[in-house]
Amino acid sequence: MNFAPQIPLKFDGRGSRLYYPGETLAGSYFLDELGDEPIEAVEVSVLWHTEGKGNEDFGIHEFWRRSVADGDWIDSRTPGRFNTKLPNSPLSYDGELIKIFWSVRIRVFLAGGRQIVDEHPFRLGNIANIRTLRMTHEKGLVLESLSSTPKEEPSP
Amino acid sequence: MIFSDGFDSLNSEACEWDDSARNPFSTRFTQPGAIPYFFEPKFIEKIKQTDPAFYIRAFAESMGEKTELSTWIGCCYLANQLASKRFCGQIIGPHGSGKSTLVAAMIPTIRRRGVDVFSFVLHDKTRALPAEFYDELRLFEERSVAKKILLLDGFEQLYFVNRLRLRSLCQRKNLGLLITSHRRQCGVPVLFKTAPSLETLHKLVDYLLDESKILPGNKAIDALYSRGRENFRDILFSLYDWFEESGRHGK
Fold first, then answer.
1. Which candidate from B11, B27, B210 shows the least CB-CB separation from A55?
2. Are the beta carbons of B188 and B99 closer than 8 angstroms?
3. Cα–Cα–Cα angle for B212, A53, B34, nearest 5°?
4. Taking the complete model, does pTM exceed 0.90, yes or no?
């Protein structure tokens, strides 16, 4: 699977893709690398989805559509902007059975009928992944067993 | 991707994080419609030998399609077979052998022939058609297309009486019927029997892992096949666990 981005996106802020609930997510996307074909519409969604062994779930937090048909001016040379306040949940999670991913998805509709979709992931919240949690737990058990080992009696 | 303002490293960092967190055996990547159906090479070879003109035509058609060549040719062949049987047919095969994946792959080739498809999946122990089926069918019937097909995945879940009712409904409304089932259903011509081989499993794993440098190894795949046989769904679940436990760390 190739996740190489086609539509560059730059998140505003401190230079990390880690955000906390209630924080503002904003950024610019660039359409100037898409070629000469006229753009009919651009959709930007801030969304989350689950991945894992079972059925998937997803939710759209915010959605914007700019369309030439609706009278919007779309200039591929000018970066597009988006801005939203992030919700409290669901937080990004990297578990074994389920993972929750947040991303900004940009869908561009070209005049010839072609669509270009690109996703830019970010993290909401900073929950450690399951492997880190397990290692911490195992480490804790080892430390606990070491501290409960009876000390040797001093020889008379 | 290079940003002129120096954000290239930030972007690549985020993509690395995304790639490593993703399990290529997640349902998202393995569900019907997300992966092609890999036909056995001998099936495609048989099509090529028995009907070379059709093979060349299907080959040319596949140029504009984003799918595997063998998947497209095999599905086109089955869509033709379905048309020749008055759009009534069944795909049979054991649990997890790829019946749903095959019918999902067939949909674009059927639609290409000007036939609209209403697809509905019956889950385990659904003995009667739910109300939502009839609601969606009503909307489907309103579409102005010359020929329409009802694609029912998991037909054998229905009680015998409900299967008869459904078939009479299709006849009454002049709908075609394409079903998947574990066992042969009387009165519906068999189009294809799914029985994937070890070679197909290797091909599927290669496809899912794509450019990944981490591979489970041929012996591990052979062992999974000998244990799971034709149930690729269970094998893919096992590979999901393998990737979580060791695959993503390259162990």
1. B27
2. no
3. 60
4. no
